[in-house]
Amino acid sequence: MTLRDFGLLFALMALWGLNFSVIKLGVSTVHPLVLTALRFSAAVFPLIFFIKKPDVEWRYLMAYGLSFGVGVWGLTTLSIGAGVSAGMASLLLDMSVVSGLLVGWFFLNETITRNKILGVGLALLGLVLIMVADGGAVTGKGLILVLMASVFWSFNSLIVKRANTQSIFAFNVWGMLFAPLPLLLLAVIFEGTQAITELPNQFTQWTLFSVLFQAYPTTLLGYWFWNKMIMKYSISSVAPLTLLVPVFGILGGYCFYDEPIEMSQIIAAMLILLGLFVGQMALPKLSFFKRLRGDSCKKSTMS
Length: 303
Fold this sequence. Notes:
Blueprint: H1 3-27, H2 32-44, H3 58-81, H4 86-93, H5 96-108, H6 114-132, H7 140-163, H8 168-176, H9 180-191, H10 194-197, H11 199-202, H12 205-232, H13 235-238, H14 245-257, H15 263-280, H16 288-302
């Protein structure tokens, strides 16, 4: 990965980390699924009328919209509404790093090198340390929701790869077209029609800020660049960079909501950054699994 792309991705992770605090601001007044539907509606309309549909099959656009809109952000926003702190939501969503490596290896035959395994191991150690020292900022329901969202995140990258489009921005916009309606339908199914009919009374200037911040810099700009990097590099190379998101998510929770930062969290953040660095090191491209198979064959021959 070039230094320029790494630097831009670093800045993007900071934006995404702070976005969790903005989501928490929105769910304080509006139902989480409705807030997410407003986010993607603002990102799609009226922009979609000025952008040509990318040359990909409709099934990829529909799959992307459902996976990204409902699977990743619908569930994540629900988890914050269910009591997960902004910092912990950003942290737990990063469990996609593990599933991302497995998805890339199983579906795309991507090589899992020793440095990536070591880097992810260090980062996961940091994640576990933060979870243990969290202090109760996670509910059982919220934990399940955000972990489900992390799995959808990995498959979302797979959809982008399989679509194999060069029109990344158009793909992002047209794919998000399929997110708002399912989100609203789910809100009605679980909460009743009042989730929508009460919106005019619940909508405030802070709700508007939350929707616009999520729609434009976070979604349109952020995911255009993210998907571009997914197409340029392997999933297993890009995915570990999301380990930076919880660092900024925790800082955002501390600055805006006084969510505590303990020494154990600082140590954990250092482990995450160390894991990120190790995962990006240019070590010999020898597959970990191929080496294991080679060692096994040697032992069998000697015996």
